[in-house]
C-alpha cells in the first residue's frame, strides 16, 4: 500500500524529492529508489526527521504508517522521540489499530488520522474512510485527504472512529466479496460450457461496468437493478433464485462479521 501511495502522489505531480521512505528490506528499498527516485532513510527515526545525507534534519510534515498491525507497536516505540520533536501529522493506514492506543504509544498529544483504504487503491481505484482525532488542524485534514485521494476514487470522512470498523466490513473487505461473487459467476458459466477465459473476461467487465454505472449515474442501487430486471425475463429468474437463497441477508451477515472482527482485532492489538 505504501508503494501505491507513493505512485499515486507522484502521478499527481508531488515531487519525489519531498518523499523519504524507511524500508527494512534492502532489496525493496532499492526498488523504491529506482522506481520512484525517492530518498531512502537510514532508519524509521531518520525518516520522521527527514534527515538527508549531508543536510540538517528538517522534520517531516506527514508520517504515513504503512506497516502491518502486528508490528505497529514496535515501529511506534522506535519513533516516538522523533515524533515528539518534529510533531508531524501521523497518518495510519493499519487496520485494527485504534487511535487511543496509537496516541498512547506515541506519548504526548500527536496529531493522528486513521484511514482505511482497500486493495483497489493498488490500481488507483480505492475507496477510503478517514477519521481525525483531536488536535488535527483543518490544513492537516486537507493534506491527509489529498494523500488518500491520490489512490482512491472515493474518499470519505466518518464521524466516529468506530465507523472505521464498518468501513473495514464494507469497503475494506468488500473486494473479496465481489471476487467471491465473480468466482461463482465464472464457475456457473464454465459448467454451462463456456471457456474459463471467456467467462473470466465477461464477468470482470460486467462487474466493472456495473460499478461504473452505479458511480456515474448516482442512482439508487435498487433502481438500477429494477431497470435491468424485465418482468418474466431472464434477470428476474436469476434474481428470484438468489432471493430464494437469501442473498441479501448473506451479504449483511458478511459485513457484520467483518465489522465485529475488526473491533476484536482493535482490542487484541491494543493489548500488545
Salient structural properties:
elongated, 12 helices, 57% helix, single chain, 272 residues, alpha/beta
Describe the structure.
With 272 residues, the chain is α/β, with parallel strands linked by helices. It has helices spanning 2-11, 26-36, 44-49, 72-86, 99-106, 138-149, 163-172, 174-191, 196-217, 221-228, 234-244, 247-270, and strands spanning 20-21, 39-40, 62-65, 89-92, 111-116, 126-132, 152-157. It has a 5-stranded mixed beta sheet with strand order 3-4-5-6-7, with helices on both faces. β6, α6 and β7 form a beta-alpha-beta unit. α7 (163-172) packs across α12 and α8 crosses α9 (196-217). The longest helix is centred in the C-terminal third of the chain and has 24 residues, at 247-270. The protein is elongated and about 75 Å long. The mean pLDDT is 95.
Number of strands: 7
Number of helices: 12
The residue fraction in helices comes out at 55-70%
The end-to-end distance, rounded to whole angstroms, is 23 Å
Q: What percent strand?
A: 5-15%
Q: What is the general shape?
A: elongated
Largest sheet: 5 strands, mixed
In short:
This protein is α/β, with parallel strands linked by helices and 272 residues long. The protein has helices spanning 2-11, 26-36, 44-49, 72-86, 99-106, 138-149, 163-172, 174-191, 196-217, 221-228, 234-244, 247-270; strands at 20-21, 39-40, 62-65, 89-92, 111-116, 126-132, 152-157.
Mind sketching the topology for me?
Blueprint: H1 2-11, E1 20-21, H2 26-36, E2 39-40, H3 44-49, E3 62-65, H4 72-86, E4 89-92, H5 99-106, E5 111-116, E6 126-132, H6 138-149, E7 152-157, H7 163-172, H8 174-191, H9 196-217, H10 221-228, H11 234-244, H12 247-270
Parallel strand pairs: 1-2, 3-4, 4-5, 6-7
Antiparallel strand pairs: 5-6
Helix pairs in contact: 7-12, 8-9
Amino acid at each position: 500500500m505504501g508503494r501505491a501511495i507513493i505512485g499515486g502522489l507522484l502521478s499527481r505531480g508531488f515531487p519525489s524529492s519531498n518523499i523519504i521512505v524507511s524500508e527494512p528490506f534492502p532489496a525493496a528499498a532499492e526498488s523504491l529508489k529506482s522506481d520512484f527516485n525517492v530518498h531512502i532513510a537510514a532508519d524509521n527515526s531518520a525518516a520522521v526527521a527527514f534527515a538527508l545525507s549531508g543536510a540538517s534534519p528538517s522534520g517531516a510534515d506527514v508520517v504515513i504508517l504503512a506497516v502491518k498491525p502486528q508490528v505497529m507497536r514496535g515501529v511506534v516505540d522506535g519513533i516516538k522521540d522523533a515524533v515528539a520533536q518534529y510533531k508531524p501529522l501521523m497518518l495510519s493506514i493499519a487496520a485494527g489499530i485504534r487511535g487511543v492506543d496509537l496516541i498512547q504509544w506515541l506519548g504526548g498529544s500527536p496529531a493522528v488520522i486513521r484511514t482505511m483504504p482497500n486493495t483497489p487503491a493498488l490500481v488507483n481505484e480505492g475507496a477510503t474512510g478517514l477519521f481525525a482525532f483531536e488536535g488535527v488542524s483543518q490544513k492537516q485534514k486537507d493534506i491527509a485527504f489529498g494523500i488518500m485521494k491520490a489512490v482512491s476514487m472515493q474518499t470519505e470522512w466518518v464521524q466516529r472512529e468506530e465507523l472505521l470498523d464498518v468501513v473495514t466490513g464494507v469497503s475494506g473487505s468488500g473486494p473479496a466479496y465481489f471476487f467471491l461473487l465473480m468466482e461463482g459467476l465464472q464457475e456457473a458459466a464454465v459448467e454451462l460450457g463456456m471457456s474459463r477465459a471467456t467467462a473470466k473476461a465477461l464477468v470482470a467487465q460486467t462487474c466493472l461496468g456495473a460499478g461504473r454505472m452505479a458511480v456515474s449515474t448516482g442512482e439508487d442501487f435498487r433502481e438500477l437493478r429494477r431497470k435491468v430486471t424485465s418482468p418474466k425475463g431472464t434477470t428476474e429468474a436469476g434474481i428470484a433464485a438468489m432471493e430464494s437463497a437469501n442473498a441479501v441477508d448473506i451479504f449483511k451477515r458478511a459485513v457484520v462479521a467483518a465489522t465485529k472482527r475488526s473491533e476484536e482485532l482493535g482490542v487484541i492489538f491494543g493489548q500488545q
